[in-house]
Every structure is written in structure tokens, then in C-alpha cells.
Amino acid sequence: MSLNIWRFASPQAFYSLAGNLIPWFLVAAALLGAAGLYVGLLIAPTDAQQGDAYRIIFIHVAAAWMSMFIYTVMAFWCAVGLIVNTRLSFMMALALAPTGALMTLIALWTGSLWGKPTWGTWWVWDARLTSELILLFLYIGFMSLHAAIDDVRRADRAAALLALVGAINVPIIYFSVKWWNTLHQGASVSLTRAPSMARAMLLGMLLVALAAWMYSIAASLMRVRSLILERESDSDWVQTIARTEAAT
Amino acid sequence: MNWSSPAEFFAMGGYAFYVWASYGVAAALIVAELWLLAARRRTFLRRSRRRLDRANDAE
């Protein structure tokens, strides 16, 4: 028997697949998050220069990575939707946007709270901070544009186009600390050189980043399930679900 | 273990406000998102159940 993955391009098949996967991703997120915070807040040593203010790094970096990565995945699904015209691709893109915006907001918020004690300011208009703020506006613009167009198919395509044009901002954020002279420090982790921080700090950061990864997948799958139900509400299989599950 | 007492842990070397405002708001936002996601699903199921009931009454 061969497993046909294309079967899951059907919203109905994907709905039940996502339903089975969500609990696992949530449990993984909780366990990795607890382990990461344990290592980051309790085990990792105090930083020689920044004192304990540096402990903001554990959420800041995880949220900032996810904010860029989710946008990339969202733009990918938009491209797939525009090229192959699959309904589920656009739903995936739409399901990712609010979680991506949330991660961007957390990155900006924690960055501001980190900037005040270490740089002496909540905010500067430097390349890294400004491009991350533009990312938040791109997420909000994507969702607003989609909400403003009544015809779902037209809304999908218009918002997808906006998301694809905005994708140019992701490499700009990532390389901003190299291309411009900024207040923001360089990359915390790089594949090409040895880590610049204590091992416990690095371990805590990677564990929380993995937790953020698992959480984002779970939240997006939960949202895509609602989107599938809402868009397929006239179909028999959704009405069967409504009959059997509404009571609980 | 980096700390010798719970009070020292919560004080975060004098950076308690910055550290806990970061963690607190991030946690609150994540809880809010999960709550909104669950609410969206409940709302859909409740509305469609009501719609199905009306359709049955009409028959």
C-alpha cells in the first residue's frame, strides 16, 4: 500500500490530519518550552556585560526567528496558491498570518524592553528594528486586505500578491545587521563560526526556539481547521461535524 | 543553579521589570491566541448547529 500525500491537498482530508497532529505539537511545545525556560532562567549564568537583562534573549530570539520564518512559509503558500490555484494553500497562508504577527509583536516588545536597560532607549530607527516593524505592518496589511475584499477567491489572490511582494523584506531584516551600521547586535547563532555565548545560554535559546516552532505549527493548524470549516460550511462532511460536535 | 534564593531569582539582578514584562506579556499573548482559536471554533460550531436546527424546523 502506498501513501499518497496529495490526498491531504483536499481540505477534508487535511482537516482530520491536522486534528490528529495538533495535540502532539502542543505537548512538544509545552515540554520544550518548560525545558528551555528551566535552562535559560535557572541554569544559565548571569552575563558579564548585561547582567540578567540578557535573559530576555530566550523569548526575543525565538520570536524574531519565527516572525521571519512564518512570513517565508506564508509567502511560499501564497506562491503555491497563485501558481497551482489550490484552495488549501491560500487557507494555510491566511492561517499563518496572525501567528506570524503575534511573533513579530513579541519580538518588538521584548526587544524594546531589552533595549532600554542595555542601550538606554526603548526604540531607535535603525535598520534591524525598522525592517522588523515593517514586517508587522506587512502581516497586518495582508490580513486587512484579505478582510476588505468580499469575494474570497479575489481576496486570496490579492493578499497573496501583497505577501509575495513583501517577502523582499525578510532577507532585508536578516542581513540588516551586516549591511548597515546598527545598534542591534549581530547574529546570535551562525553556522560558520563557533557560538559566541555560554553553552547553557545557547541550549536554552535553541530549546525555546524549538518550542516556538512547535507552538506556531499547532496554532496555525488550529486556525486552518476553523478556516476549512468556515469555507466548506455548506458541504455534507462539515454539517456532519457540526451535528456531532456542537453539543460538546 | 544560578540563584541562591527565590527572591534573588525574582529580582533578576535589578532587571526584574524588563525581564518579567517580557515574559509576562509574551505568555499573556500566547494564552490569548489559544483562547481566541478555541472561541472561533466554538462560535462556528454553535452557529452551524443553529442553522441546521432552523433548516430541520422548516421541513
Describe the 3D structure.
The complex is a heterodimer of chains A (248) and B (59). Chain A is mainly α. Chain A contains eight helices and no strands. In chain A, helix 1 runs antiparallel to helix 7. The radius of gyration of chain A is 20 Å and the shape is globular. The two termini of chain A are 36 Å apart. By secondary structure, chain B is mainly alpha-helical. Chain B contains two helices and no strands. Chain B starts with 5 loop residues before the first helix and ends with a helix. The mean pLDDT of chain B is 91. At the A-B interface, helix 1, helix 2, helix 3, helix 7 and helix 8 of A face helix 2 of B.
What labels describe this entry?
heterodimer; A: 248 residues; mainly alpha; 8 helices; B: 59 residues; 83% helix; rod-shaped
Gross morphology of chain A: globular
**How large is the share of residues in beta strands of chain A?**
under 5%
Q: How many domains make up the coordinates of chain A? A: 1
| Unreliable residue stretches of chain B | none
**Structural class of chain B, please?**
mainly alpha
DSSP helix count of chain B? Answer: 2
User: What is the mean pLDDT of chain A?
Assistant: 91
Number of E strands of chain B: 0
Structural class of the secondary structure composition of chain A?
mainly alpha
Poorly predicted residue ranges of chain A: none
**What sort of overall outline of chain B do the alpha carbons produce when their principal axes are compared?**
rod-shaped
Q: Strand-residue fraction of chain B? A: under 5%
Instruction: Estimate the helix proportion of chain A, in percent.
Output: over 70%
Compact summary:
Helix content of chain A is 75%, strand content 0%. Chain A has helices at 11-43, 57-84, 87-119, 127-148, 152-166, 169-179, 199-231, 236-245.
Task: Describe the secondary-structure layout.
The complex is a heterodimer of chains A (248) and B (59).
Chain A: H1 11-43, H2 57-84, H3 87-119, H4 127-148, H5 152-166, H6 169-179, H7 199-231, H8 236-245
Chain B: H1 6-11, H2 16-58
